[in-house]
Target: Glycosyltransferase 2-like domain-containing protein
Amino acid sequence: MKPYVVLVLYQTPWEKVPSRAILLKWLAENELSGLMVYDNSLQPQDHPDFTKEGINYSHHPENLGLSVAYQSAFEQMPAETDWLLLLDQDTLLTEAYLMQASQMMQTAMNQQIAVIVPKIVASHQQISPIYANEYIRAGFQAVDSGLTNDRLMAINSASLWQRDFLKLIGGFSKEFPLDFLDHWLFYEVYQKQWQIAVLNTTLTHDLSVFDYEKVSVRRYKSILAAEKRYYTCYETRWLNKHRQQLFKRTLKQFLTVKNRQIWKLTLKAFWHFNQKEVGQ
Model:
């Protein structure tokens, strides 16, 4: 089984991508059916690698997010390819990951396994996959390796999606162009009662959205909007929990985050939910 890979770039040189070398190696060894480099940066990149067979580079300065990039790869992946690998520019793939993923792809073709995910670590903590049977907040419970029907959530990067499942859900949702796309995907896995395979291998990833000192105001607005859409349209049972969490987040940000716009945006989001409740 040879997956098709889509790697999304944003304001990062191709040379600096941690997985560049191993992706080129796998392509040369015919372990991949192809690689799409979808560049959302302001300026295009010109690199000799992009002329190599099997690599499709495209530049999209309008930066419409991840969903459009993933959908483009889903629609363009070779007909004989059954698996799509989503990859961020900050994730470092390993040989152990490919070996285990290849074995699981073979197994999964005879079962309703929607997605294969590794364990992802950031700042020495497993951030993916985690259990999502409760409202997700700090102190979440990490998931061990194996096959499961449990309600989980994992980040997009390094997740391998079976083509048949993506067809079933109509591809990648335009409702979540960037943030909470991963939440929506795994919500759909649980709703459709397909399985998730968690590999016994660990990858590292830089998840800057966890750091409110690093996240831009524009990105944080995107996060808040995606949270609102997700908890009002999908996981509605956690709407009250989310409102409470927004209030707690506001207080914490007021005390710890230097950029004062961040806590003000969170307070505004919390106030919006309260006003909506009063209106009801």
Notes: The helical segments are 20-28, 66-76, 95-108, 163-168, 181-192, 217-233, 239-256, 260-279. The two ends are 53 Å apart (CA to CA). The chain has eight helices and eleven strands.
